[in-house]
Structure formats: structure tokens, C-alpha cells
Amino acid sequence: MQLHVVYGGTFDPVHRGHIAVAECVADTLGCRVDLLPAADPPHRAAPGASASQRAAMLHLAVAGRPQLHVDERELRRAGASYTVDTLSELRSEIGPRPSLIWVLGADALRGLASWKHWQRLLELGHLLAVERQGHPLDAEGLAEHAPAVAAELLPRRRAVAALTHTAAGSFAVLRPGRPLPESASEVRRRLAEGGDWRALLAPAVADYIAGNGLYGVERV
Ligand code: ATP
User: Fold this and answer.
1) Which of 6, 25, 43, 88 is the most exposed place for a label (fewest CB within 10 A)?
2) CB 98 within 8 A of CB 124
3) Beta-bridge mates of residue 69
4) DSSP strand E in 14-170: where?
5) Which pLDDT score, from 0 to 100, does residue 47 have?
6) Chain centroid to CA 24: how far?
7) Each residue of 109-132: b (16+ CB within 10 Å) or e?
8) pLDDT tens-digit map of 161-212
9) Backbone dihedral region of 215: left (phi > 0), alpha (psi from -120 to 50 degrees) or beta?
């Protein structure tokens, strides 16, 4: 069965947690994972780095990791970027049969009901949620924090490997082998307030931030 796995996010900036998630998915499913940066959001404050800078950092972060790629399609599309449009575009490209998997973190999963046409995502592909510190993904927690999401997803829950057997419509949870405490907001907080922000990033990404004076850092 053909498999297409996509991991979307703002990646402002891409950190070690993102790369660990992508590698864990790639290793577990034995496939390539495409990291897909969101375009600059039209209706809210721009992220700390522009879309092309965030994409450039992603390219640096995946360099030398053959299972990981960057898909810049949302940057090429005009207007708002909605996951449902991206999955629909991907589904038209790959055809109806291959398994299409959208990877997201546990916090993003809890907010899923605010995404445009979120139930349609499951007609287009599968959802693979990755546990994140502070956001456990047990059924009770999900039902408490996101009742509509729990009602839609829990009946669809399968083992991770089962997502490769069908084209769309299932949900699975992946637990990374180590805790992944990194977050982009913590990177930005350390950049603004002081703290070892480099420790949360791939060295090439940290050098890019310093070299381009991003997030208010003094250019070196
Ligand atoms: P912020 O701290 O600004 O919310 P972030 O670290 O969550 O940023 P995003 O670009 O928003 O970064 O994340 C992209 C996707 O990766 C989201 O689905 C998010 O839940 C997931 N993710 C990010 N960091 C982790 C992590 N440490 N463990 C598991 N999932 C993560």
C-alpha cells in the first residue's frame, strides 16, 4: 500500500521536538515524512520569522535526514492556508487509494474542532496524534478537554500500523520514545528573556537565527 505522510505546523522556529516527532513517525511507519510549513497567517500577527525563513530553517533541520523532506505547497498558494485545502490537494495528486496521514501534536488535536471543515479531514486522510508533555492523549483526557473531537475520533481509533492499510478515516496515537519538552514558544521566550535557546534547536537552525537576526536576536 502506498503511503503519504505529512506533518504540518508553523515551525516558528523548527525545534528538536519537531524533528524527533517526524523521525519517530518515519521510523514507526518506515516511510518518508514531509514537513509542511504554514504560510503567513493572513488575519493575525505574522510569526516571528517569515514563511520563507521558516521554510529555510526547516530545510536546514532536515539536512542529512533522508527520511525527512520539506513540502512548501502552502507557501506557494495565495490566500489563507487551511489544512482541509492542503489535504484535498494532496488527495487529488496521489489518487484515492494511497494512505494519506496528517501528523499533529496532542495540543493541536485538542483544538481540532476550531479548524475549517475539520470532520472532512477524516474523509481525506487519517489523523496521527503524537503525545506531548502536558497533553496526555488518553480517552478520558480527550473527552474532557475536547468532547466533540473525542466523539468523532475515539470510535475511529486504530493501532498506528493500521493507518497504512486504508486510505482515510482512522485515528491513531503515537507515543514518542522519550519525552519531548521542546516548544517554539519556549524557544521564543528564551530568545526574548534570556536562556539557552540554542539547546532546543539544531545547530544550523540556531546559526540561521543568529545570522539573520531573527526574533530580535542581535545579528552575528
Ligand atoms: P508553539 O509553542 O508556538 O505553540 P509548537 O512548538 O507547538 O509552537 P508548531 O509549529 O505549532 O510548534 O507545531 C507543529 C505541530 O507539532 C503541532 O501539531 C504541535 O502540536 C506539534 N508539536 C510541536 N512540538 C511538539 C512536541 N514537543 N511534542 C509533540 N508534538 C509537538
Assistant:
1) 43
2) no
3) 34
4) 33-37, 68-70, 99-105, 126-130
5) 62
6) 13
7) bbebeebeebeebbebbbbbbbbb
8) 999 999 999 999 999 988 899 999 999 999 999 999 999 999 999 999 999 9
9) left
**Ligand 1 centre and the CA of 126: distance in Å?**
19
| Phi (first) and psi of residue 137, to 5 degrees | -115, 30
Task: Evaluate: CB of 88 within 6 angstroms of ligand 1.
Answer: no
pLDDT of 44 higher than 70: no
* Nine-digit cell string for 107: 495540543
Ligand 1 atom 16 nearest Cα? 105
Supply the mean pLDDT for the chain.
93
Pick from 203, 186, 204: nearest CA to 195? 186
CA distance 174 to 132: 10
- Identify whether the C-beta of residue 34 lies closer than 8 Å to the C-beta of residue 71: yes
Residue 37: CB within 6 Å of ligand 1?
A: no
Predicted TM-score (pTM) of the model is 0.96
**Cα-to-chain-centroid distance, residue 33:** 10
Question: Residue 135 gets which letter from DSSP?
Answer: B
Q: Is 13 in the pocket of ligand 1 (CB under 6 A)?
A: no
**Mean pLDDT (whole number) for 26-51:** 84
The strand pairing partners of 129, in sequence order, are 104, 173
Angle between helix 16-29 and helix 51-62 axes, rounded to 10 deg: 60
In angstroms and rounded to an integer, the radius of gyration of the C-alpha atoms of the chain is 17
